[in-house]
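Progress note, project year one: complex with zinc ion.
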Amino acid sequence: MRLVFLGPPGAGKGTHAQVLSKDLGVLHISTGDMLRDSVKAGTPLGLEAKKNMDDGKLVPDKVVIGLVAERLERPDAHMGFILDGFPRTPEQAKALDEELKMLQMPLDMALDFETSLPMIIRRLSGRRLCPKCNKNYHVHNYPPKKEGMCDVCGSTLVQRPDDRVEAIENRLKIYKEVTEPLIQYYKTSGRLVQLDGDIDVAPLNIILMNLFREKGLCRK
Ligand code: ADP
Ligand code: ZN
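Model obtained:
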């Protein structure tokens, strides 16, 4: 199973990718998580990316394309993968197609989580993140067992700098201008499936699993 998740910030891509990758035994490749890891580790790449990320701007194509290519070339990518947050520009989409062609691992589908603005705002403003293991929570929809604390590792949860209102506006604007056209790119090549991203996690998970069965991508 080789999938791309498209949709605006707050569409639930990361949440669904987190759940599905575990249930289906495929990799969850989140460029946002990879970049945040580099920021935390203080690598030169991370230091350069941080400014853009905090403002809600995109990190240069060359940087993210390199990160993803390196990840896809590791042997465990043969298990299958969900790409969450990549591609985000036409250049990234083309680079991905070339990389997957070279690896002889063609994409099965691009899923677009169509999500309304009020839902996006509600989800992003309530989002909390474990800075240690990258697990996502939501103060109402998906709270941790103990308030403010990660269920997995006990770290104190934080709000992402780019979930501030000004940064959210930037991210939505960039999404509309640069990323949304990718929907047409995948539609034209017959690989697009559109879903209602406003639906809650549990019912949408059922819809997704049925879709995967229907397409012969999963026997569970
Ligand atoms: P969200 O989808 O909620 O906006 P992500 O965690 O996917 O957030 O990404 C956070 C930030 O990391 C983005 O705003 C951007 O700065 C950077 N980033 C992640 N993926 C990419 C990408 N494919 N291309 C460019 N920048 C990216
Ligand atoms: Zn944690």
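The longest helix spans residues 165-179.
Residues 130, 132-133, 135, 150, 152-153, 155 surround zinc ion (ligand 2) (CB under 6 Å).
No further modelling is planned for this target in the current period.
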